[in-house]
Write a structure and sequence with these properties.
The protein is α/β, with parallel strands linked by helices and 186 residues long. It has a single domain, classed as Spore Coat Polysaccharide Biosynthesis Protein SpsA, Chain A (Alpha-Beta Complex). 24% of the residues lie in helices and 18% in strands. The chain has 5 helices and 6 strands. Strands 3-2-1-4-6-5 form a 6-stranded mixed sheet, with helices on one face. Strand 2, helix 2 and strand 3 form a beta-alpha-beta unit. It starts with 11 loop residues before the first strand and ends in a 16-residue tail after the last helix. The relative contact order is 0.19. One of its GO terms (biological process) is glycogen biosynthetic process. It catalyses: [1,4-alpha-D-glucosyl](n)-L-tyrosyl-[glycogenin] + UDP-alpha-D-glucose = [1,4-alpha-D-glucosyl](n+1)-L-tyrosyl-[glycogenin] + UDP + H(+); L-tyrosyl-[glycogenin] + UDP-alpha-D-glucose = alpha-D-glucosyl-L-tyrosyl-[glycogenin] + UDP + H(+). Keywords: Glycogen biosynthesis. Pathway: Glycan biosynthesis; glycogen biosynthesis. This is glycogenin glucosyltransferase.
C-alpha cells in the first residue's frame, strides 16, 4: 500500500530559528517539525541556526525533516543596553538577546512566502491555507503593547526589506525595550 504524496510547493516554507545551545529550544524545534509534518508535507521546513548551535543538533534537525540554513547572528541592538534588562531573569538573554537574528528570514530568497514559528510553538491544526490567504506581512497583535508578536509571522523574503529593517534597528533608541523589538517596530 502506498500513500499518495502531496505535490511539492517549492516557493513556500515553514521556518524556525535556533541561536544558542539551549536544549529546550532544540527539543522544541523537533516537536514543531513533527507538528508541521503531521499537517503539511508539501512545503520545506527551514531551521535557521547560528554558529552557537551544536553540529550534532544540526544533523538531528536534518533527520527530523528540517533543512538547516546556517546564518550569521545579527547583533542585538537593544538587549543588555537598556536599564529594563536588569529586571529580567538571568536566562532571559537566551530568550530576548537574539531576536534581531530573525531579520535573516527576509534573506531567505529561495522562497516567496515563509511562515515563521518560534521553536517553542506547535501547530495544532493545518496552517497551509495561510500561505495563500494571507497577503503581505502578518503577525499576531500583542496583548500587552501596541506592536506585534514576532513569534509567529507570515512574510515575503526580500533583501530590500531586510536592509530597511536593519536601518530601523541601527537607529534604535536604547530604552525602547523588548516590546518594540525589531522587527516588531515595522
Amino acid at each position: 500500500l502506498t500513500m499518495p504524496t502531496e505535490e511539492r510547493i517549492n516557493s513556500q516554507a515553514y521556518a524556525t530559528l535556533l541561536t544558542t545551545d539551549n536544549a529546550d529550544y532544540f527539543r522544541g524545534a523537533l516537536v514543531l517539525g513533527s507538528s508541521i509534518r503531521s499537517f503539511d508535507s508539501a512545503r520545506d521546513m527551514v531551521c535557521l541556526v547560528t554558529s552557537s548551535v551544536p553540529e550534532e543538533w544540526r544533523s538531528a534537525l536534518t533527520v527530523a525533516g528540517w533543512t538547516v540554513a546556517v546564518v550569521d547572528e545579527v547583533a542585538e541592538f537593544w538587549f543588555g543596553k537598556s536599564e529594563e534588562c536588569s529586571r529580567f531573569d538571568k536566562d532571559q538573554g537566551e530568550r530576548w538577546g537574539h531576536m534581531a537574528t530573525k531579520l535573516r528570514l527576509w534573506q531567505q530568497l529561495k522562497y516567496e512566502r515563509i511562515l515563521y514559528l518560534d521553536a517553542d510553538t506547535v501547530l495544532t491544526g493545518d496552517a497551509s491555507g495561510a500561505f495563500d490567504k494571507v497577503k503581505g506581512f502578518a503577525a499576531e497583535r500583542a496583548r500587552f503593547h501596541s506592536y506585534f508578536n514576532a513569534g509567529v509571522m507570515m512574510l515575503s523574503p526580500s533583501e530590500a526589506t531586510y536592509q530597511d529593517l536593519w536601518l530601523v534597528a541601527r537607529g534604535w533608541v536604547v530604552g525602547d525595550g523588548p516590546r518594540r523589538g525589531c522587527p516588531s517596530v515595522c
